Q: What sequence folds into this?
C-alpha cells in the first residue's frame, strides 16, 4: 500500500493529511502527485469524489511554500478555476486544511455575493486564488487582478465548464496568463471540445485517468432490507451464516459502531476486525493484511478509513448504516466490483435512514430492490 510518506511532500502537509484522517492516497492522487511535484503538466480524467482536489492542491501548496516568493498586490501565484461557487468554497476549505501552519494565503472569488470583500482580499495579493470564471472576469476588467506572478494554473471540471457556457470566459482568462507556467486540466469526460482546449493549454502533459466508481454500479447486485435498528446485529449474523460468503466489507457510520459490530460478531466466533481512525496504522495494516489473506472474513470500516484502500476480492458490501452523503454509497459498493468482478451490496435501512436511501436512489437513478429475508430469519 502506498502511503503519503512516499511522496516528497513537506512534513507539515503530511501532518495535515494525517489529522484529516487520510491514511493512503486515492488512485488519482497516487498517479498524479509525483508528476505534479516534478513540475509536469497534467491531464486528469477524474470526477468529483475521486480525491482530485487533494491531487492538485497538495503539489501546489508544496511548491508555493518551498519557493517562498511573495505575491504582490492584485497578484496570485496559482489560480484554480472551477465552475460553481460550491466547488470553489469546497476547494478553498480543502486548501486551508492541507496548508495549515504554512502561512499561505488563499482567497475565493465567485458570483452571487458582494464583490467588495473579494476585491479587498486581492489588494495584498494571494498565494492561491480559487475562482469561478464570470466573477473573475469582472474583477479583471475592473483592474483588481493581475497575472504576471502566476506559476500554476488549474482548470477544474472542464466538461462542466463547457456545459455551463463558460468556455469563452475561460479563453479570455487564459490569454492573460504567462506562457511559462504549470498547467493542470481536470475533466470527468473528454469530449472533442475539451480535448482541443487541453491541447492548447497543456505542454507535453502526463495523462492520468481514473474510472469513476459510479460506472460500476450497474454490475452490482443491490438490495435493501427495511429493518428495525435493533435487529441489524442479528440480521448481519444471519447473512454471515452462509459460508459461501467469503469476504465482506461492512460499513458503519461511526468508529464506535464499527467496534460494536466486531464485538457482536466475535461473540459468535465470526472472525472480523475493524479499521477506523482510532486504530493505529499498524493495527489497520494488520487487519487489512489478514482480510486480504482470507484469515478474517469480515472487515468493518467507516467511510474515511476505507477511502483509498484497494481490496479487489470483496464479494459483499454490507451497509450496516446508510451514509448521509449518497456519493459515499457509490464509493462503498464500488469496493465489490473491482477489476471486472461482480458483487453484492446489501443495505440495512431503518426508519431514520429512509431519507438517505431516497438520496442514494436519486443519485444512482436506480430503485434498489427491497429484500425481505430478515422477516423470515430465526432470531436465535
Ligand atoms: P474530491 O474528489 O476532491 O471532491 O474528494 C472527495 C472526498 O474524498 C473529499 O471529501 C475528500 O476530503 C476525501 N478525500 C480526498 N483524498 C482522500 C484520501 N486520500 N483519503 C480519504 N479521503 C480523501
A:
Amino acid at each position: 500500500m502506498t502511503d503519503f510518506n512516499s511522496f516528497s511532500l513537506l512534513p507539515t502537509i503530511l501532518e495535515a493529511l494525517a489529522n484529516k484522517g487520510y491514511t493512503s492516497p486515492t488512485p488519482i492522487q497516487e498517479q498524479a502527485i509525483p508528476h505534479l511535484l516534478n513540475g509536469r503538466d497534467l491531464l486528469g480524467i477524474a470526477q468529483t469524489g475521486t480525491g482530485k482536489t487533494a491531487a492538485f492542491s497538495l503539489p501546489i501548496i508544496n511548491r508555493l511554500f518551498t519557493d517562498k516568493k511573495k505575491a504582490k498586490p492584485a497578484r496570485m501565484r496559482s489560480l484554480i478555476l472551477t465552475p460553481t461557487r460550491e466547488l470553489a468554497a469546497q476547494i478553498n476549505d480543502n486548501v486551508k486544511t492541507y496548508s495549515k501552519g504554512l502561512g499561505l494565503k488563499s482567497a475565493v472569488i465567485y458570483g452571487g455575493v458582494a464583490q467588495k470583500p473579494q476585491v479587498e482580499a486581492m489588494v495584498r495579493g494571494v498565494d492561491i486564488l480559487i475562482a469561478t470564471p464570470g466573477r473573475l472576469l469582472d474583477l479583471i476588467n475592473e483592474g483588481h487582478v493581475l497575472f504576471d506572478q502566476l506559476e500554476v494554473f488549474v482548470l477544474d471540471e472542464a466538461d462542466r465548464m463547457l456545459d455551463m457556457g463558460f468556455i469563452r470566459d475561460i479563453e479570455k482568462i487564459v490569454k492573460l496568463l504567462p506562457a511559462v507556467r504549470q498547467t493542470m486540466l481536470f475533466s470527468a469526460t473528454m469530449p472533442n471540445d475539451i480535448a482541443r482546449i487541453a491541447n492548447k493549454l497543456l505542454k507535453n502533459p502526463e495523462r492520468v485517468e481514473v474510472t469513476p466508481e459510479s460506472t460500476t454500479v450497474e454490475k452490482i447486485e443491490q438490495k435493501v432490507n427495511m429493518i428495525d435498528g435493533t435487529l441489524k446485529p442479528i440480521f448481519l449474523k444471519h447473512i454471515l451464516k452462509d459460508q459461501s460468503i467469503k469476504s465482506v466489507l461492512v460499513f458503519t457510520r461511526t468508529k464506535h459502531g464499527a467496534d460494536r459490530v466486531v464485538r457482536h460478531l466475535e461473540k459468535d466466533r465470526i472472525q472480523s476486525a475493524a479499521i477506523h481512525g482510532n486504530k493505529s496504522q499498524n493495527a489497520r495494516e494488520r487487519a487489512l493484511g489478514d482480510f486480504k489473506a482470507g484469515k478474517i472474513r469480515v472487515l468493518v470500516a467507516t467511510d474515511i478509513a476505507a477511502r483509498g484502500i484497494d481490496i479487489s476480492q470483496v464479494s459483499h458490501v454490507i451497509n450496516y448504516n446508510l451514509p448521509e452523503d449518497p456519493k459515499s454509497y457509490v464509493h462503498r459498493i464500488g469496493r465489490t466490483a473491482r477489476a471486472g468482478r461482480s458483487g453484492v451490496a446489501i443495505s440495512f435501512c431503518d426508519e431514520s435512514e429512509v431519507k438517505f436511501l431516497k438520496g442514494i436512489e436519486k443519485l444512482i437513478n436506480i430503485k434498489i430492490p427491497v429484500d425481505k429475508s430478515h422477516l423470515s430469519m430465526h432470531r436465535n
Q: What stands out?
A: The two ends are 40 Å apart (CA to CA). The pocket of adenosine monophosphate is lined by residues 22, 25-26, 29, 48-54, 304, 307-308 (CB under 6 Å). The chain has two domains: 4-209, 215-376.
